[in-house]
## 1
Amino acid sequence: SFTDVSLAAKVGWTTYGVLDPDESDPSVCQPGEPPLLCEYRVLSPSVALIMFGTNDVGVIGADDYRVNLRRIVRLTEGKGIIPILSTIPMRDGFATRVQEFNRIVAEIAAEYAVPMVDYGGAMLPLGMDGLDLDGVHPSVPPKGYEGAADFNPNNLYYGYVIRNLTSLQILDAVWRSTAG
C-alpha cells in the first residue's frame, strides 16, 4: 500500500478536490462520482487514512475546511469504512492556519469518535519540522521514496518515514481495538 496510486489523493489536492466529481478519473470512476467515493468503490477498504489540509490552508477558510472534512468523515462512515484522521505538518508561512486546521481535525475526530494520528505533532521535533527544502512536503530519506518504509533509527529523521511510521502505528492500534 505504500506504492499504490490513489484515485483520491493527488499532489496538491484539497478537501474540496476529493469531493468534486469533476476531479475524478473518467476511465475508472462513474459519472458524477467524486474521487473519494470512486476510490472506496474500487478498493473496498475497511479503514481510510485521511489527511487533507496542507493545501487547503492557503486557499480556503477554517469554516469551509471544517464542512469539507465533516463531509469526508460522514461519506467514509456511510460506506462502512473506519476513518482515521491525521493532523497536518507545519507549512512555511502558514503556522497559525496549520494550528487552526489541526484543532479542527482533533475536534472532528472527537465529535465523530474516530481515531486520529498526530502526524503534524510527530514532525515538529525533526529538523525543519520534518519538511523538505520547499517548506511544504515532508523530507525524503537518503534512499528516496523507496526508503520511506525503512524504519531503522537513522531514517527516523525524515518526514516521509515518520508519516509511514505513524500511519502503521495508528493502523495497528485500530486493528488491536477491533480484533476479537
## 2
Amino acid sequence: MAEFEANYALVVLVIGLVVFLSMLVKSGLEKTMVPPLVGFLILGFLIRLADSRLNFLNQECQGILGFLAKLGLITLLFRVGLESNLEGLLKQLRRASVVWASNVLVSGTIGFATAFYVLNFSWVTSAVVGCALTATSVGFSVAVWEEAGALQSKSGELLIDVAELDDISAIVLMALLFAVLATLENGAVGGAWPLLAKTVALFLLKLGAFGAFCYLFSRFIEPPMTGYFGNLKAAPDPMLVVVAVAFIIAAVAGLINFSLAIGAFFAGLIFSRDPQAVKMEAGFLPLYELFSPFFFIGIGLDLDPGSMKAALGLGSVLLAAAVGGKILANVIPLWPMAGAEKALLIGVSMIPRAEIAMVIMDRGLKTGPWVVPPALFGAMVVVVAGTCILSPPVVISLLKRGLWKKEES
C-alpha cells in the first residue's frame, strides 16, 4: 500500500511539474515570435532525455501522461471545429474551392513525391507525409493579419476560408488513409484491391452516417440542450456540459474506428453553428490551456533521441517541401486572379503546420514503424517548428507593404 501511494505521489509530482513548466514555457515564448507549441515539443523531448538518465517515468506516469495527451488531442481538435464557421464557409465555398483544391493536390503531391522519390520511403509512409502536409495551421498567421488590421479584407477572408477547408479535408483524408492502411500488411497491396474498395466504401458509409448523426444532433438537440443548461446555471457549468458532450462524441467516433481526433473535430463543428455555444468558449479556454500542451509534450516524449540526427537531415528536406508546396499551391490559382504579390502573401501565410499535421504523424507512429519510422516522426517535428517560426516574420514584412489595402480601393 505504501509503495502504491508512493508511485502515485510521483505521478502527481510529475504532472504538477509538467503543468508548471509548460505555463513557464508559454509565458516566456509569448514575448518572442516562437509559438508555444515549439516550446512544448522541446519540453517533452527534454523530459524524455531526463528520464533516460534518471528513470523517473514509471509505468503509472507513462500511462497517465498518455491519457492526458489524448485529452489534449480532443481539446485541440474540438477547438479547431468550434472556431470553424461551417455555414459561412459553405456560402464562400465556390470562391475558395479552387485555391483549396490546389492546396490539397499540390502540397500533398509535393509532400508525397519528396518522401517517395527523394527520401526513398515506402508509398504508405509517403502517403502519410503527403496527407500531413495538406493541413494548415493558420492561427499563427491570423494573429499577424489581425494585428495589421488586414483580417477583414478580401484576402484575409479568403485565407481563413481556405485554411478551414484544408483542416477539414486533412482530417477526413487522415481517417480514410488509416482505414485503408488497416487492411494492408506492411504496406503491400498485392491482390488487396477488392478489399481496399470495400474498405473505402464502408468508410464513406460510416462517415456519412456519422455526419448525419452530427447534423441532426446540431439541428435538433444541441440548441435546446445548450439553452437549458445556459439558463439553469452560471458559467462555467454550461461549457462543461458542452465539453462533456464533445468527449462523448469523440469516444463514439473512436468506438466505430474513426478516431478521437475526427470525433472531437465534428463535435466542435456541431457547436460552432450556435452563437450561444461559441460565446461560451471563454469558459472552455482554461480546460484548453490545461490539456492541450500535453498533446505536444506527448509528441516530444515520443521522439527517439537516437534518431534525432537523422531526423534533422530528413526534416530539412521536408521543410523545403512544406514551404515550397504551400507557396506554389497558392500562387498557381491566385496569381491570375489577384496578382503575384497577393498570391505570395497568402501562400506564405499558409505555410505553418502544427496541430493536425502532428495528429496525422502521431497516428502513423502509433500504427507502427512501417507507417511512420521514428526518424521521420522527428523530421516532421522539425517541419512543424520550422514552418511555425519562419512564416510569421515574412508575413509581417509582406503585410507592411500594404498589399491587402489595394484591393479595398
## 3
Amino acid sequence: MKLTRHIIILLLVIAGIYSCTERIDIPLDDSYVRLVVDGAITTDTGVQTVILSSTSSYYYNQLTPRVSGAQVSISDGTQTFALREVEAGKYCTDANVYGVPGRTYTLNIKLGSPIGGTTDYSAVSTLYPVVSLDSISLLFHPEWSEKGIWEVKCYVQEPPSVDFYRFLVLRNNVMLTDSIDEWFVTDDKFFNGNYTNGATVAYLQQGSAREGLNTGDTVTVEVNSIGKGYAKFLWEAQAEIRGSNPLFSGPPANVKGNISNGAVGYFAAYSTTRSYALTPAFK
C-alpha cells in the first residue's frame, strides 16, 4: 500500500512538471495600425522636424515603418510653414524657421493614404518662455563611486508661474542625454519663484567612456520650457521604458499624446536656453 501511494505521488509530480511547460500560443491582433508622430518647433533658429511612422506587429524586429508622401505644415494662426520630405518619413522646415514664446502652434498632417481609417491628423501646442540660465557648475565627488561622480548644478531665477522643464546635458557639443529615459523632466514645485542656487540636474559617472570628463572639457546644460501636457507625456513614457514597480503590478496604460484621431506621439513647442562650464582640474 505504501509503495502504491509513492508511485501515485510520483506520477502526480511528473504530470505537474509537464503541465507547467505546456506551450501556450496567444494570438495578437496586428490589424490595428496607427500613425506615430514625433515633432517639435523650438525657439532655436534652424530646421524644425516632424517624423512620421506607423505602428507595426509585435514580432516586427526592424525599425518602425516610416510614412512617406504626406503633406505637413506648422502654423501659428498668422504664418504657416510648409515642411518638405527630406528622407522617408522625415519632414523639415527651411533652416530659418523658429518659434516665438507666447504663440500657439498647430501641426497639420494629410496622409497620401489612410492609416487607422483617416488621412487627416492635427495637434496643438503652446510655446512658453524660459528664463536664461545665470550659470552652471560642476562638482566632483570622488567618494560617491570607485572613480567618482560629477554633479551638474544650475543657477537661475525661476519665475513665480507654474512651469515645467526638460534638462539635457552635452559634453564638447555631443549630447549625453540622447534618449528619452535619460532626460530630466521636472516641475518647479520645490523652487517656484525662487533663485535656484545650485539645483542638481544631472550626474555623470567618471570613468565611463561616454560620460567621463577630462580637464578642460566643455559641459553644456540645455533647458527647455515645456508645457504640462508634454511633461506628463514624457513622465508616462519614461515609466513605461523603465518598467513597472513592483514587478507584478498591472500593465501601464497607453501613453496619451496630443495627436488627433487616435495617433500616437506628441507635437511639442518649447523654448530653449543654454549655459556651459569648463571641467576643472580634479584628482
## 4
Amino acid sequence: NVLMPRLIAGHHSDDRMGVELLELVGLGNRLQHRPGELSGGEQQRVALARALVISPDILLLDEPLSNLDAKLRIQMRQELREIHRKTNVTTIYVTHDQEEALAMADRIAIMNKGQILQIGSPDEIYYRPANSFVAGFIGEANMISGQVIEKSLDSKVEIQTPIGKLLVQSPDFPLSLNTSVTCCIRPEYVQVKDTQSTSIPNQFNATILDYQFKGDSMELVLQIGPATLRAIQHNPRNHKMERNQIVSLSVSPQDILLLKD
C-alpha cells in the first residue's frame, strides 16, 4: 500500500485530516510512497501522525527516537518540539537519554526503582539536583565525598576531601561542622591551565590520564591524588594537551554543589 492519507486517518475519517497530519509532520510530499521507501525518521513521523489523529488529551512517547542515528535524533527532537508547539498536546516523553530529556522537556521527573526522586524544570534538575543519584543521572558529574571542617562568614564552607580542601558556596540547607557531604562538580566547570595562579581558590596539580577530542570540545580524564575527575574544555583549538602532562586544575566555589549524604 502507498502512504495515502486514509492510512493515517483510518477508514472512517476524512482524508483531509490525514493530509493535514502528514503535512504537520513534514510528509506532505511523500503521500504516494510505499512504507519501505520511507527512512527511519519518516516512519517515526507516520507513527506520530497516527497517534495524533484521535486528538488525544495526553500523548505518550516511549523512547521514540531510540532506533535513529545520532544526527537524525537531533533533527527529530527539533521537529517533535515544533509539532508539540503547534498541537499543544500534553506529552509524556519516556527516555533514558539524559541529553534528550534536557532538550525536550518543560518538566522532568527522575525515577529510580519505581520512586520519583525529583520533579522540576530541566535547569532545576541540572543545577539543583535533590541528591547524588539525580546529579549523576542528568549530565556528567564528578562526585567527591567530604566533611565540613570550617564555616566562614562570607557564605562559604570548607570541605576536607581526598583531593584536598575545597572552598564551597554555602548550600540552601543548614550545615554543621563534621557533617558528611558530597561535592558535585560538573566537568564543564573544571578549568585546566598550564600554570597555577595565586589568586584563584580550589587549585590542584593534576595529571592528564587520557583525553578525547570531540570537535567542539575536549574531554579530559585527570588524576588528582586518589581521585579521577573529568573535565570538558570548549574550543579545544586553544588547549594543547598531552597524556601524562602535569596541569593546574581549578574550580570556582560557586560551581561546586553540595549534596547531603
